[in-house]
Amino acid sequence: MNTADQYLRALLLLERLEGPPVATGRLADVLEVSPASANEMIGKLADDAQVEHEKYRGTVLTDRGRERAEAVLQTYCILEHFLANVLGVEEYRHEAASLEAVIDETVAERLDTIIDRHDDCPSCFDVEADRCRYLGSDQLAD
Amino acid sequence: MEFSEAVVSDHQLARLLQIGIVLEEVVEARAEQHLETLEVETAHPAMIALLEDAAAESHEHRDQLAKLVKQLDAESTGYAEIETLVRERYARTKPDDFDDLLYDQLCNEETAYKFYDDLIEAIEASDAIFSIDRDALLSVLRTIREEEAEGVEDVARLMEELP
């Protein structure tokens, strides 16, 4: 996952949590970067037609950006499921966040061949809990 | 939200190596499943040899990774457990024909190569001091990566050769 992917996923989650458009300051807070850095990346994503940005209003994902953001979120969900259900890691959220930059989508797809995910993934991602809603207290039933 | 493209601790390194072991276990178990489902009398001997070599190489790779994990005082993963998961899910992800089988094998090799390439890059980007020798660690991983690259070439060659 590269930095642009990280922004797209954050935008997707903020859109789900608070509704579009997403203010640049809010995005910068969540990603723990400066508003100037966030602004620069939003410009790059807009040039790539992944977001639409309107000054003083905020940023909205385009269909293309949303598709990419959902793929990124799905990779993260696979990693969470893999850590929790295959390796039995209790702190799977913390560890998934620390490992996701090194785990490519193709690697996640291979790991996906041995885990169970619901068909609605990644819509099942609980933004406030920062995890798939089928993980944690209600584990997937085999 | 944490975001780091470098490996920063023994714990993180051990976890990534465990993921590598599982990937190798998946490759080995899937190759064995492919071999079990192939009709030996109709399958091309080169395809059987390819799958047998892939399973043997993955076995060797996971042994090498398991040694590194042990040196980091972490636990490896159990092959039997992963093999069971592969068997349980195999019907869902099973290739339909020889072409699909070779493509699956190509994906295995390419995925493994990508994993080791990213891992090596993440270790090289790190200033962390690990409890195992960094040069020895990188040497093992680079050798495995090279073998995965050769594996990609082998499968690609066979895909061109087979009718």
Gross morphology of chain B is elongated
Indicate the low-confidence ranges of chain B by residue numbers. none
- The gyration radius over C-alpha positions of chain B equals 17 Å
CATH superfamily of chain B: Ferritin, core subunit, four-helix bundle
State the name of the first-level CATH class of chain B. Mainly Alpha
Number of helices of chain A: 6
Percent of residues in helices of chain A comes to 40-55%
* Structural domains of chain A: how many: 2
- Strand percentage of chain A lies at 5-15%
Please give the largest β-sheet of chain A. 2 strands, antiparallel
Mean pLDDT of chain A: 87
Q: Write down the CATH topology of the largest domain in chain A.
A: Diphtheria Toxin Repressor, domain 2
Task: Break the fold down into its secondary structure elements and pairings.
The complex is a heterodimer of chains A (142) and B (163).
Chain A lengths: L2 H16 L5 H8 L3 H13 L3 E4 L3 E4 L1 H24 L5 H8 L5 H7 L13 E2 L4 E2 L10
Helix pairs in contact in A: 1-4, 2-3, 4-5, 4-6
Chain B lengths: L9 H28 L7 H27 L7 H15 L4 H27 L9 H28 L2
Helix pairs in contact in B: 1-2, 1-3, 1-4, 2-5, 4-5
Textual characterization of the structure:
The complex is a heterodimer of chains A (142) and B (163). Chain A has 142 residues and is mainly α. Chain A has 2 domains: 3-66, Arc Repressor Mutant, subunit A (Orthogonal Bundle), CATH 1.10.10; 67-132, Diphtheria Toxin Repressor, domain 2 (Orthogonal Bundle), CATH 1.10.60. Chain A has helices at 3-18, 24-31, 35-47, 63-86, 92-99, 105-111, and strands at 51-54, 58-61, 125-126, 131-132. In chain A, the strands form 2 sheets. Chain A has a two-stranded antiparallel ribbon with strand order 1-2. In chain A, a hairpin with a 4-residue loop joins strand 3 and strand 4. Residues 138-142 of chain A have low confidence and may be disordered. With 163 residues, chain B is an all-alpha fold. Chain B has a single domain, classed as Ferritin (Up-down Bundle), CATH 1.20.1260.10. Chain B is built from 5 helices and no strands. Chain B has helices spanning 10-37, 45-71, 79-93, 98-124, 134-161. The longest helix of chain B is centred in the N-terminal third of the chain and has 28 residues, at 10-37. Chain B is elongated. In chain B, 34% of the residues are buried. The mean pLDDT of chain B is 87. The interface between A and B is medium-sized, with 28 and 31 residues.
